[in-house]
Amino acid sequence: MEFRIDSGVLTDAVAWAARVLPARSPMPVLGGLLLEAADGRLRVSGLDHEASARIEVEADTGVGGRALVLGRRLLDICKVLPRGLTELAVEGARLSVTSGDARFGLSLLPLDDYPAPPALPAVRGLVDGDAFAAAVGQVAVAAGRDDSLPVLTGIRLALDGAVMTLAATDRYRYAVRTLEWKPEADGGEPADVVVPARRLTEIARSLAGTGPARLALDSGSIGFERDGLRTITRLLDGRLPRHDKLFALGDHALAAADRAPLTEAVKRVAVVAEGDSPVQLTFTPTSIHLQAGYEDDVASQRLPATLTGQDTLTVAFNPGYLLDALTALDTPEVHFHLLGPGQRALLTDGPQPTHRHLLMSVKPLV
């Protein structure tokens, strides 16, 4: 195998495929990246027990062939290559990498021991890369981090007609986002699966700015594919708790405020909130008063706001959770659907929301 390629293109391709490589594995070959050169294309592939990634880029392929090398070592080399044309070639039991006056040699891993990559599931339709990346980012903040409860570390992805629903919860908050997608002509069957949040976030970021991507799905895995790029991830077992009843608040007060100034105000007053100390929000028909801290270490700020359904209402939230919710919303105004102190509160992006974020309010400051 022998080919030439721009060092920047090579670095980007290797970095993208290397995302799925395991940090540790009892199978050394799973730390490898498979390089395949043929017909003016270079394919770089990586996999572990949960995910696989493959990317194709243009290259000057003098001699076709395949080589398996340690992926993270190759990535380290790519990051320090001089800018310009790079030549890679198999020389006996190693891969040589030459760029300008710099030359590296990498030991080859045994190709016979490398597992076959998983097949792409059945394609279900198209999703816009930018819209999908934004939506995943908005719900991922609520995904759990506790590996002892694996399903809560995932993002629910549900398909129903032309509507996709993404949702995540760590039991203390619950984020839900809906967006449109384009199912196959026959409409396809509804689906409801849970995808590892970390994997889905990485995939979504890689799809941003690329236009539509094909979404593929079966009972055990989900895949995304666009020109030159393919990634497949295993699904998590189990289901997230349903959010329908949690989000049905019944009779409640409604408050609204400009999101950006409120976000900055929460950051400002939260500097005196130590540990689990909350940020308190007192709503009136014309303003919102923020307060944090105890005794001598206190902070407060008042902003314009509206409140309907009550004359005044005080709630308090974990400042980190509140900031995550406000930052994830992407509209000028945020709406608060409020039951009262110590009860559920729903933050939305407008009267007809596509993004909803449920928080549990805590005991207000004394």
UniProtKB/TrEMBL annotation:
Name this polypeptide is given: DNA polymerase III subunit beta
The keyword Cytoplasm is assigned to this record: yes
Family: Belongs to the beta sliding clamp family.
NCBIfam families: dnan (TIGR00663)
Gene Ontology MF term list: DNA-directed DNA polymerase activity
One Pfam family from the record: DNA_pol3_beta_3
CDD domains reported for this sequence: beta_clamp
InterPro entries the record matches: DNA_clamp_sf, DNA_polIII_beta, DNA_polIII_beta_C, DNA_polIII_beta_cen, DNA_polIII_beta_N
Listed EC numbers: 2.7.7.7
Gene3D superfamilies attached to this UniProt entry: DNA Polymerase III, subunit A, domain 2
Domain DNA polymerase III beta sliding clamp N-terminal as annotated: residue spans: 1-116
Domain DNA polymerase III beta sliding clamp C-terminal: 253-362
Domain DNA polymerase III beta sliding clamp central residues, every copy: 128-241
Keywords: Cytoplasm, DNA replication, DNA-binding, DNA-directed DNA polymerase, Nucleotidyltransferase, Transferase
Record's keyword annotation contains Repeat: no
PANTHER family: BETA SLIDING CLAMP (PTHR30478:SF0), DNA POLYMERASE III SUBUNIT BETA (PTHR30478)
Name of the gene encoding the protein in the UniProt record: dnaN
Location relative to the cell: Cytoplasm
